[in-house]
């Protein structure tokens, strides 16, 4: 693959859990700096697995390049400095405070200086300064998600990979987080965000990548990709779709066949 200074290039990606192959020979369109790319698709279709491979938290084969950097060759410290990753399932069983967890995230990337002040700045950006000294295990699900996002963005990484970062958040926090995610992209990060909420993807994403059975189904601007035929083909869901500016309305078809349980892809 030719280096592209402005994009993350993913080619011929293979990921397995033990002997179970999940992703085979997946090539994605360039994931550009400065843009928010939404990764969408049904349950079990491989979105989190792809994100983990990009974040280098699971091993993979294939090409993963960001500019001239081969992501598969990065040391743990280089990886931590370049990549911010927020997992779908948040770690449990830690007595760390929110602030300590952000300081650790800064240290992992080799940051020096007054890390406490930096960490306070990060939690303030997310509006969770009052949680700074709370042990993580005593936070609510949504609060914990906000702290996890603080850890991911703390180093202002060049690549930000977020797995359903708003799934536990209320309406106000959802939009606060999406504004922050968009600002990271506009500051030059390549952002990939797994979302189930297609309206959110339409509102905030510049590009959309659709996975079906761990394969690339389609990609492009949300209004070009989120269409009735995609919903039928990928989700088995009959609906009409209206894009009004950045707002998306999905109206299920009347008389659509009664929902039979659908097997996971
Ligand atoms: N640690 C694991 N070990 C074995 N199989 C796994 C593991 N994690 C995920 N899988 C399997 O890999 C497939 C893809 O899972 P993945 O979590 O990537 O899907 P997803 O698209 O993110 O799903 P969802 O939208 O439900 O979160 C599923 O069949 C799942 O059962």
From TrEMBL:
The keyword Iron-sulfur does not apply. Transmembrane segments: none annotated. The keyword Cell cycle does not apply. InterPro entries: AAA+_ATPase (IPR003593), ABC_transporter-like_ATP-bd (IPR003439), ABC_transporter-like_CS (IPR017871), P-loop_NTPase (IPR027417). Keywords: ATP-binding, Nucleotide-binding. Residues 8-238 form the ABC transporter domain. Belongs to the ABC transporter superfamily. This is Fe(3+) dicitrate transport ATP-binding protein FecE. PROSITE patterns: ABC_TRANSPORTER_1, ABC_TRANSPORTER_2.
């Amino acid at each position: 693959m030719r280096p592209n200074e402005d994009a993350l290039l993913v080619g011929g990606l293979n990921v397995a859990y033990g002997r179970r192959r999940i992703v085979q020979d997946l090539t994605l369109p360039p994931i550009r700096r400065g843009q928010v790319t939404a990764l969408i698709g049904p349950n079990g279709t491989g979105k989190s697995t792809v994100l983990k491979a990009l974040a280098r938290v699971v091993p993979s084969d294939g090409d993963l390049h960001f500019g001239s950097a081969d992501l598969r060759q990065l040391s743990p410290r280089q990886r931590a400095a370049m990549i911010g990753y927020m997992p779908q399932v948040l770690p449990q069983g830690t007595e760390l405070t929110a602030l300590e967890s952000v300081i650790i995230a800064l240290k992992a990337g080799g940051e020096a200086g007054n890390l406490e002040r930096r960490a306070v700045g990060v939690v303030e950006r997310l509006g969770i300064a009052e949680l700074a000294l709370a042990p993580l295990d005593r936070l609510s699900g949504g609060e914990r998600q906000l702290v996890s996002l603080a850890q991911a963005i703390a180093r202002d990484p060049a690549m930000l990979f977020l797995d359903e970062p708003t799934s536990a958040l209320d309406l106000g926090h959802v939009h606060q987080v999406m504004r922050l995610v968009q600002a990271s992209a506009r500051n030059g990060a390549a952002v990939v965000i797994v979302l189930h909420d297609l309206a959110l993807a339409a509102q905030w994403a510049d590009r959309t990548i659709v996975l079906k059975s761990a394969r690339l189904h389609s990609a492009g601007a949300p209004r070009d990709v989120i269409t009735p035929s995609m919903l039928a083909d990928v989700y088995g869901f009959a609906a009409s779709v209206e894009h009004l500016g950045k707002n998306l309305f999905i109206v299920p078809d009347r008389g659509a066949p009664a929902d039979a349980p659908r097997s996971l892809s």
